[in-house]
Amino acid sequence: MLTEALIRRFIKNRTEVRNPAVRAAYGKLAGIVGIVCNLALGFGKFLAGTLSGSISIAADAVNNLSDAASSVVSLVGFKLASRPADREHPYGHARFEYLSGLAVAVMVLVIGLELGKESFLKILHPEPVAFSWVAIGVLAVSIGVKFWLAAFDKKIGRRIDSGSLLAAAADSRNDVISTGVVLAAALISRFTGCELDGWMGLGVAAFILYSGVGLVKETMDPLLGLAPDPGLVEYVQKKIMSYPGVLGTHDLMVHDYGPGRQFASAHVEMSAEGNVIESHDIIDNIERDFLEQDGLHVVLHFDPLVTGDAELEELRSWLSQQVKNIHPALTIHDLRMVTGPTHTNLIFDCVVPMDLAMTDEELIETIQRMAKERDPRIFCVITVENGYAALPR
């Protein structure tokens, strides 16, 4: 309820999540809420930790202050990411969101190391911790606030498809666990006399480091070039295949320049016997619909497919099934047949998945052998291609 109330109050045109300005507004709201909540919790815990002399509570306070700094970095990242394209950056600046996430991850790692160091020293040189019901209350309130903040960031992250906010949600969820551990340590110390403060501080630091490593991976993947989401791949294929005259599609490649800045290219198979102008018009319509309806910049290449040759159709169907006996994800396309007096050339491309345990030469030899078993006159001329985004068949 509170989340929706904040969205209605501060986000104009909140349903237009593909609009860069609306997306930036969502990021700004999430950043400000994160800053306010984490600063309040951080100062409250710092005060409680100082009064009680608890290193684990102080560590948890620093963790909240680092989260506030992370929210500042994310806020700046969303602001920079919303800048329009320019001459030097024709694909826009949306990757600033990924860079801000990476900066946050590095900050988390540094703070985790420092807290681990302080906690280790507390284990070597333990000091008594003064029990305080005020500190217990601060920790309990923190758990409730962080639980809500995790749900808040998760909801907005899913709504605008933001990896940065989903990572922030996961971090808040982790904070609920780490603060719960600190609270348990304080209660155990109060009722049993067993001092676990240094060990709990070390545990919190380890948890922060674990979270930081995960954040580094999540933010590095899109910068390095992550494979497109399988759901997007399937959606693109089904949408292309839904247009009249389209017989097949392959060679899909998706380039991610940040949220809302995706570019794709693919080949579309259409009848070679059809009207070229009409086929070109259909392809133009597909490209325009992707841009207007999905915000996806798509460039399609027209592959003419011979459909009036029964023998070629039979060979295409047979070969498509045979290569799947080698690997279920293998596909062929652009099959052409050139018949001569002594042999027949089958010319085609073969798309291989990244996990194929064969060299290109071994694959070509295997396919050639299968073709020879069917007809000794067949000679295969194969171009092997990597499957950057293997489409389901």
- Biggest β-sheet strands, sense, barrel: 3 strands, mixed
Secondary-structure element series: HHHHHHHHEEHEHEEHE
Low-confidence runs: none
Q: State the end-to-end CA separation.
A: 43 Å
**What is the C-alpha radius of gyration, as a whole number of Å?**
29 Å
Determine the structural class based on helices, strands and strand pairing. Answer: alpha/beta
Q: What this model shows, in words?
A:
This protein is α/β, with parallel strands linked by helices. It has helices at about 1-10, 20-50, 55-80, 95-125, 135-160, 165-190, 195-225, 230-240, 275-295, 310-325, 360-375, and strands spanning about 245-255, 260-270, 295-305, 330-340, 345-350, 380-385. Helices cover about 60% and strands about 15% of the residues. Strands 1-2-3 form a 3-stranded mixed sheet, covered by helices on one side. A 3-stranded mixed sheet has the order 4-5-6, with helices on one face. Strand 2, helix 9 (about 275-295) and strand 3 (about 295-305) form a beta-alpha-beta unit. It is elongated, with a radius of gyration of 29 Å.
Name a few traits of the molecule.
three-stranded mixed β-sheet, 393 residues, alpha/beta, single chain, elongated, 11 helices
